[in-house]
Amino acid sequence: MSNTGQPLLEVSTANLTLGKQSLLENINLKIGAGEILTIIGPNGAGKTTLLRIALGLQKPTSGTVKRQPGLTIGYMPQRLHLDPTFPLTVKRFLALACKNDFARVISLLSEVGAAHVVDSAVQTLSGGELQRVLLARALVREPDLLVLDEPVQGVDVHGQVELYKLISRIREQRGCAVLMVSHDLHLVMAATDQVLCLNRHICCSGTPESVTNDPAFVELFGSAAVQYMAIYVHDKNHHHDQCASCGRGSANDR
Q1: pTM confidence score
Q2: Domain enclosing residue 108, as ranges
Q3: Rounded to whole angstroms, how far apart are CA atoms 164 and 18?
Q4: Is 120 part of a structural domain of the chain?
Q5: Spatial strand order in the sheet of 21-31
Q6: Phi first, then psi: what are they for 167, rounded to 5°?
Q7: What is the pLDDT of residues 10-22, one digit of tens each?
Q8: For 121, which DSSP code?
Q9: CA-CA distance, 174 to 83, in Å (whole number)?
Q10: How many angstroms separate the CA atoms of 50 and 58, rounded?
Q11: Is 139 in contact with 170 (CB distance < 8 Å)?
Q12: Largest CA distance in the chain
């Protein structure tokens, strides 16, 4: 795909109404090459619905969706529904997408840190292992844009941190953009360039720092979330061994 400097994907004034229910109102979204954009919001805010519109799986009632010509998208769904009695190994699951190129399967699993589960049944994987396998599958097409719906779902906090680091590393190494849905506010803020706060309409958007200072963010998530985000901003922007005023850290990095 040629890089024209234009957005990879742009949603403009999109609305979605099903029956008498308004699901999305006046949505504008734009993501450029190499950018990580994260959509956050409460349950029922329309986050997954917005991803479906961006992917072309759902047509908006009004508005437009533009994708760069030749744009390749890799998609990681929120859930994988498999018959628990159906025998399916990780190798076979990925081989179906890789046209039985088993060397490619191993390469992708190694990239996401999951080569050790290649012969395991998909149904027996831990939450973190399954998410890594799904991420490997999303990379099969060498995407320009990765679309990830709750990529750390079902993973413990340590595993979530590691997965977000992995996503950032993939972006850096591959140069792909990442459009992600997440509800893990305190973790995702360290792993994104831009944030779009959604509650059927766009409440606020911008850098993590600007969004956490927006009154709409406070109204949606509460003051406790804002205080937690303040710690994140402090940690991201300070070297504690040089910060005398905050009382955190020391020359010995205590």
Answers
A1: 0.85
A2: 80-141
A3: 34
A4: yes
A5: 21-31, 9-18, 62-67
A6: -60, -45
A7: 999 999 999 999 9
A8: B
A9: 33
A10: 9
A11: yes
A12: 62
